[in-house]
Amino acid sequence: MTRTDEQAGGPDSAVTVRGLVKHYGETKALDGVDLDVREGTVMGVLGPNGAGKTTLVRILSTLLAPTAGQATVAGYDVVRQPRQLRRVIGLTGQYASVDEKLSGRENLYLIGRLLDLSRKEARARADGLLERFSLTEAARRPAATYSGGMRRRLDLAASMIGRPAVLYLDEPTTGLDPRTRNEVWDEVKRLVGDGVTVLLTTQYMEEAEQLASELTVVDRGRVIASGGIEELKAKVGGRTLRIRPADPLHLRPLADALDALGITGLAGTTVDTERDAVLVPILSDEQLTAVVGAVTARGITLSSLTTELPSLDEVFLSLTGHRAGAPQDAVPADTREEVAV
Amino acid sequence: MSAATPLTGTGADARIPLRGHLRHTGALVRRNLLWIRQDPESMFDAVLFPIVFTLLFVYVFGGSIGQALGGGQEAYVQYIVPGLMAMMGMNMAMGVGTGFNQDFNTGVMDRFRSLPIGRGSVLFAKISVEVLRMLIATTILMVVGVLVGFDITHWPGLFAAVGLSVVFGSALMWVFLTLGVVMKNAQSVQAMGFLVLMPLQFGSSIFAPTQSMPGWLENFTEYNPLSSLADAARGLMVGGPVAHDLWMTLAWSVGITAVMAPVAIHKFRTKT
Q1: Which residue ranges run through the membrane (chain B) (predicted)?
Q2: In chain B, which residues have their Cβ closer than 8 Å to the Cβ of A98?
Q3: How many other β-carbons are positioned within 10 Å of the β-carbon of residue A301?
């Protein structure tokens, strides 16, 4: 066995991925991905459906064999040392992977036993985690009766039984309402506070910003940008100001006036005619103030003014010049399902 | 992170000891038993199948087929009850495939497969519970059988027959487990199961003696393992020649298991 440290991204790298490739016939789910997750950090992997995020997670959890390339987790090679690797990871999938017919407690007890805890330890660990994830009251009910948020929490609890060094969260809030999403975010933040290394995949810039310290943006199986989250945010133009004049007739003059300010970044000022708003990408609070000043100077009355984080589409537009995942439509539906799920 | 530092070799820590396998299988058996407790209706087939089939065959076909056997309904009871016992394994096995397939379409299997357990444990646990269900169904069959007049002449033979049908049934379960893993949804597993099941069951000596069948069909029944199992069960419980059918059944069981168990485990391991 070759020493993995030398090829890996240094001794404090918890997850190291080099040139990872996964092909399904003609489809390139992963087409040469490099990635380093440092110990104790949260790496966000941002990308649209079909970008290869789930494929990456499945390879890193030994559920799928890569076509080529190398990946190590906590020093263990995904292909050559799958059993050791499984001991140090926790997986929370896109769909909560809990047994619906079992109660929350039975779910956790089962995983504990499968992780070689004694009966007593497994019971104690299950109760501890139920308490921690606020599921004690529902502990004896079948998971089928749980709400979406409770299921995700149970799923997270199940991932934590083995005290994993690295936790994968594959789109942990997809399909959840905003309140439940915040609940899951809070739980993830607590786990991160405990020093767990997290690899998080998401379609939402907002989620990445909430949880991750570093970000890798993927599209069609390739990394198109990576770095610190602040760094990338600056690159994609930070926030977007959405300005609605009270009178839709003011849309064009307002847009022209703001364009004339010359502060906007790559994407430029755009007019959202559907919702009668002008969108201005801004990079700083100073720019925000300048925009408001310009609006006041023109004497235009506004009905609303909000700042938004860039959507995934805008991130992609500014990083690649094309919309997220658009050419992916060429992929046959059959294989795409496997790529995305 | 303590685990990251020294453990780069493929040391013994990678191997799962036998006790570990047993513990994992035990935990998963418990899971499947809890399923039954949670959803008692899942036992309906095991309970109702032997009752309905015994009554149906004895009272609908019993008179006329019994005549052909040189008796009446009583003669047919002696014929059909061991036959139904042989059929039990196949029916249970089909359920294994569909149930397992449904399990796969939830995220639970991903979780199991990302745990450091022998992946065969999941399959062994499923088979253990199904064998248990099969034993319950067989017990009910025997009770109903005796109630409609079945006369067990060799008690040790009864246990041998039950054992033999369990061995053959679990061999078939590997086939259906493989189908359950490979096929896309539970409906297709079931459809596929029926397609195989019907000709095998009716083209055998389970329900009726084969002498009156056309030559080609009689030849087919000759090599049909279900005929061997049914005839062996008859021989063991009510007397008659046993050795040939017994060995044939065992040979089929061992053969099927030897081929299909590794295939099922492999397919389960590499399923994406």
Answers
A1: 47-70, 76-96, 131-152, 158-182, 189-208, 246-265
A2: 107-108, 111
A3: 9
Which residues of chain A make contact with B117, given a CB cutoff of 8 A?
114
Q: How many residues does chain A have?
A: 341
Enumerate the β-bridge partners of residue A216: A45, A226
- The domain segmentation of chain B, as residue ranges, is 41-270
Q: Tell me: the pLDDT tens digits for A200-239?
A: 999 888 898 889 999 999 988 999 888 888 777 767 666 7
What is the chain B residue with the closest CA to A334?
Answer: B184
Indicate if the pLDDT at residue B125 is higher than 50. Answer: yes
Q: For A208-230, b where at least 16 C-beta lie within 10 A, e where not — what string?
A: bbbbbbbbbbbbbbbbbbbeebe
Count residue pairs from A and B with Cβ separation < 8 A: 112
Element (H, E) at A27: strand A27-38
Nearest-neighbour CA in chain B from A53: distance (Å): 15
Q: Which residue of A has its CA nearest to B119?
A: A83
ipTM surpasses 0.95: no
Q: Is B108 on the interface with A (CB under 8 A)?
A: yes
From chain A, the residues in CB contact with B3 under 8 A are 74-75, 87-88, 165
Q: Which of A284, A252, A282, A285 is nearest to A268 (CA)?
A: A282
CA proximity to B264, closest of B126, B117, B129: B126
Q: Does B17 touch chain A (CB under 8 A)?
A: no
Confidence band for A267, pLDDT divided at 50, 70 and 90 = low
Q: Which two tokens stand for residue A3?
A: 């020493």
Q: 3-state DSSP call for residue B123? A: helix
Q: Which residues of A140-172 are buried (b: 16+ CB within 10 A; e: fewer)?
A: eebbeebebbbbbbbbbbbbbbbebbbbbbbbb
Q: pLDDT by residue (tens digit) across B201-219?
A: 889 999 988 888 898 999 8
The amino acid sitting at B178 is: T
> Which of A61, A76, A197 is nearest residue B114 as measured by Cβ atoms?
A61
Q: What phi and psi values does residue A43 have, to the nearest 5 degrees? A: -100, 120
Measuring CA to CA, which residue among A81, A208, A186 is closest to residue A132? A186
Structure tokens at A116: 């070689």
CA–CA–CA angle B47, B52, B53 (5° rounding): 105
Q: Strands, E, within B35-130: which ranges?
A: none
A35: which strand partners? Answer: A17
Interface test with A, best of B2, B7, B8 (most A CBs within 10 A): B8
**SS3 state at B256:** helix
Confidence class for position A280, pLDDT limits 50, 70, 90: confident
Is the distance from CB of A269 to CB of A325 less than 8 angstroms?
no
Domains by residue range for chain A, with CATH? 4-234 (3.40.50.300), 239-308 (3.30.70.100)
At A115-170, the pLDDT tens digits run 999 999 999 999 999 999 999 999 999 999 999 889 989 999 999 999 999 999 99
Cα–Cα distance, B69 to B164 (Å, whole number): 25
How many Cα atoms sit within 13 Å of B105 on the Cβ side? 12
Q: How far apart are CA A338 and CA A335, in angstroms?
A: 5
Residue B204 phi, psi dihedral angles, 5° rounding: -145, 180
Phi, psi (deg, nearest 5) at residue A27: -80, 130
